[in-house]
Amino acid sequence: MPGVDTVEPHTIEANGITLACRTWGPPDAPPVLLLHCRGADGADWTTVAERLAAPPAPRRVYAPDLRGHGRSAWPGEYGVEAMSDDIRALLAALGLDSADVVGHSLGGLVACLLAQRHPGVVRRLVLEDVCAPVPLDPPRPPAPRPEGELSFDWAMVRATDEQRNAPDPVWWDHMGRIAMPTLVIGGGPASLIPQDQVAQLAALIPDATLVTVDAGHLVHQRRPARFLAVLEEFLAR
After folding, report:
1. Cα–Cα distance for residue pair 196/235, rounded to 1 Å
2. For a surface tag, which of 107, 109, 129, 147 has the fewest beta carbons within 10 Å of its beta carbon?
3. What is the residue-averaged pLDDT of the chain?
4. CB neighbours (10 Å) of residue 103?
5. 3-state secondary structure of 203
């Protein structure tokens, strides 16, 4: 059930840059923040967002473009820590004390750092096909830039590849600080993410539940109905 993005993003100044953010649902409904994977943007979540924002239990859904993606600023500095700081500032600019946070792949790592560093702003955490922050061996070689215009900054790809190859050990050490209820959704054997590392991430987080949806890395795109069923059950607890 593919979604058609009809929601225009608005822009918000946060952490010294401009972030684009799409919004669905009643303003007074419980907030959910959706963080996309590398190379995508907030529109990637349209199908999920439309369902979460619909009756009978609507949510207020926010789906920003991470820095270096889509219509957000491309400032040239792309550490995952900076992306996490952006999202903390975005929540403050939106007037949100806390929200349920859902992150896919790179967005899931951003969500992990947000939960480690600012646990009070994350009510529940959902991580879609995110691996534990272990160094890659062998390291991922530099990818060639595709030809033509891109919807994301290629410098962001290079920077996040470097951090994926050699993540800050603090990311691992501080996983135990993620104390809120956490759902980890693995994509199963068809995923490009090693599922033993997804399970390893779930084991590092004290109150985490691991669920596998056999869909590959793009769980919410390829099996949206199943993804939503697992997500909504968790958020309703």
Report:
1. 25
2. 147
3. 96
4. 27
5. helix
d(CA 199, CA 210) in angstroms, rounded, equals 7
The encoded tokens of residue 214 equal 């056999």
Judged by DSSP in three states, 100 sits in: strand
How far is Cα 1 from Cα 51, in angstroms, rounded to an integer? 11
Distance, CA of 163 to CA of 135 (rounded, Å): 9
Beta carbons of 134 and 200 less than 8 angstroms apart: yes
Chain center to CA of 61: 13
Looking at the chain, the whole-number percentage of residues with pLDDT higher than 70 is 97
What are the strands of the beta sheet with 17-24, ordered from one edge?
A: 10-14, 17-24, 60-64, 31-35, 99-104, 122-128, 182-186, 208-212
Query: What's the pLDDT tens digit per position in 10-25?
Result: 999 999 999 999 999 9
pLDDT on residue 2: 35
Q: Residues 158, 107, 53, 120: what is their CA dihedral angle, to the nearest 10 degrees? A: -140
Query: How far is Cα 18 from Cα 74, in angstroms, rounded to an integer?
Result: 9
| CB atoms inside a 10 Å sphere around CB 123 | 18
β-bridge partners, 17: 14
Token digits for 199? Answer: 């399970």
